[in-house]
Amino acid sequence: MRHLKVPIREDDPDFCDTIDIPMTRRDSCRNSKDYDTYQNTVTHWWDASQLYGTDKQINRRIRTRKDGKLKLTSNNRLPIDPSTGLPITGSSQNWWVGLGIFHVIWTREHNYVCDMLKERNPTWNDEMLHNTAKLIVAAVIAKIHTLEWTTAILHNDVAKLGLKSNWYGVSPIEIARGNATLAAWLVKQFPQFANGEPGAVGNPKNTRGVPYSLTQDFIAAYRLHPLLPEEFEVRSHQTDELDKI
User: Name one GO biological process term (predicted).
Assistant: First the structure.
């Protein structure tokens, strides 16, 4: 992997020579002359791989192999890799204290979920407990991002309705904000709204065949405006020429 070496001042208190930044790998699978593409070193799925890793070797290293849990020290902190000085977790690149706090929180949450699952399913083995807890934690992270974090960033009623419908789905009466007459008109104009629009939870569609991960396609992961029509007619204010987008 290529590295970008950033020069620093001689009196810098933290770095001795240069800051060594790994560069994103170019995509060897494409031959496009129009634009550059690059490869991820880890999964791009919304799958909590920052906690669980992206390969079996990392996953084995972070697990206790008992009751589905992830490794924590006796004081509920992440164990430290003596060769790097960084916590042992799914991904420790670009590490800083804020990232460390989140990793500890979600590792504890995973182990809490394992305890809950074991209590309710005493016959489950380590693998079943681990994989089910992983599924739950990934879903919780996605839910927080969709319903709480993004609505705090985009603090308006339209975005809130769109994000709620993205997760839970939306009914015609919700689209019409409780107005039954408007809801009936919408269903008449847009028959696809008759049974509502399904969201991520309970949606029978399995995008790209991944058990629980949102697709890498931005338009599918960030449907902030799912209530808008698929096509718009746009006219030039100068020539009245019609175009569709």
Answer: response to oxidative stress
CB distance 110 to 141 below 8 Å? no
Instruction: Report helix angle 126-143 to 97-120, nearest 10.
Output: 130
Classify the C-alpha dihedral 6-8-14-18 as positive or negative: positive
pTM confidence score: 0.68
**Per-residue pLDDT tens listing for the chain (245 residues):** 677 788 887 787 776 777 777 777 777 776 656 666 677 777 767 789 999 998 899 999 999 999 999 999 999 999 999 988 899 999 888 788 888 999 999 999 999 999 999 999 999 999 999 999 999 999 899 889 888 888 888 888 777 877 887 788 777 777 666 677 777 887 888 787 777 777 777 666 665 555 544 444 444 445 444 555 667 777 777 788 887 66
The residues assigned a catalytic role are: 222
Cβ proximity of 245 and 229 under 8 Å: no
- Using a 10 angstrom Cβ sphere, with 0-12 exposed, 13-18 middle and 19 or more buried, the burial of residue 61 is middle
SS (H, E, C) 40-108: CCCCCCCCCHHHHCCCHHHHHHHECCCCCCECCCCCCCCCECCCCCCECCCCCCCCCHHHHHHHHHHHH
The residues, ordered by sequence, that sit 6+ positions from 29 with a Cβ below 8 Å of its Cβ are 39
Tokens 């008449």, residue located: 188
Tell me how crowded residue 50 is: count the other CB atoms within 10 A of its CB. 19
Residue type, 10: E
The position carrying tokens 């809801």 is 183
Q: How far apart are CA 71 and CA 210, in angstroms?
A: 26
